[in-house]
Amino acid sequence: MSELDTVPVNILRVVAEGGGLVMNAYDRSGKPIGTSVSFPLYHQGLPILYSHMTGVIKEWQNQRVGLALKLEQRRFALERGFKLICWTYDPLRSQNNWFNLNKLGVIARTYYTNYYGKLAAELYRGTGSDRFLAEWWINSPRVRKTLKNSPSERNRTVLQREVIVNPTIVRNGTRIPAAKLNSRASGDSLLLEIPANIDLLRRRNASYVYRWRAGTRKLCLHYFRRGYVATGAVIDRSADRRSFVRLERGSLKRLLRQ
């Protein structure tokens, strides 16, 4: 792990004894396979539980361990009267968007540019540490409904009827952003395309990742200022796999009722 991803043991003890939550997930032999650390903060004057980190070791990923950790975090927060849990994540990571937006019912309406500053320059290889601020309104109808139902997917037929604000092209077998961005769309629902697999793309050509970052950064800042909110992830699982973030326009109250 990088230095940015570690928390000293003495800090963990302070968090655990000061009203926060420090927990591990274990396999049947007692080996730790996942962890989560969160602590109380204020966000825009509202007491929140801030989820600093939640992670699962590679061989146990995609086996509902992360979901179990988040559900326990939610139970902990509800028992203590919190309405909101927040954390940050990279909007260019398709799996994170799917998990946060579609499986947990998170929304995102704040975009941080290079959130971790110069310390992250080497770790993120010049693409910046941009982040969405995830808002998990844990007792809202939206979240309760999402946790009860399996997330849906969209296919190419549906995508052809959607407005995609960052057109893409395929170059040498790799999908990359086209030069022109659409900053004038005005529908109630828009799609922002992101890399289907950012790690694979980085190995192929890191400059392509920078192009994705620059374009999505500009569009997210623009559409968030106009009142759009990231509410879902859309995956096209055809031969040319593609990934999108859904942006919806509406009040927080309406979106949380969905």
Low-confidence stretches: none
Number of helices: 8
Order of helices and strands: HEEEHEHEEHHEEEHHEEH
**Helix amount, in percent?**
25-40%
Would you tell me the structural class of the helices and strands?
alpha+beta
How are the strands of the largest sheet arranged? 1-2-3-4-6-5
Query: For the terminal residues, how far apart are their CA atoms?
Result: 38 Å
Oligomer: single chain
Tell me, briefly, the overall form. globular
Q: Radius of gyration, rounded?
A: 19 Å
Percent range for β-strand residues: 25-35%
Written description of the protein model:
It contains 8 helices and 11 strands. With 258 residues, the chain is of the alpha+beta class. The strands form 3 sheets. A 6-stranded mixed beta sheet has the order 1-2-3-4-6-5. The protein has a 3-stranded antiparallel beta sheet with strand order 9-11-10. It has a two-stranded antiparallel ribbon with strand order 7-8. Helix 6 packs across helix 7. The longest helix has 20 residues, at 206-225. It is globular. The termini are far apart. The mean pLDDT is 91.
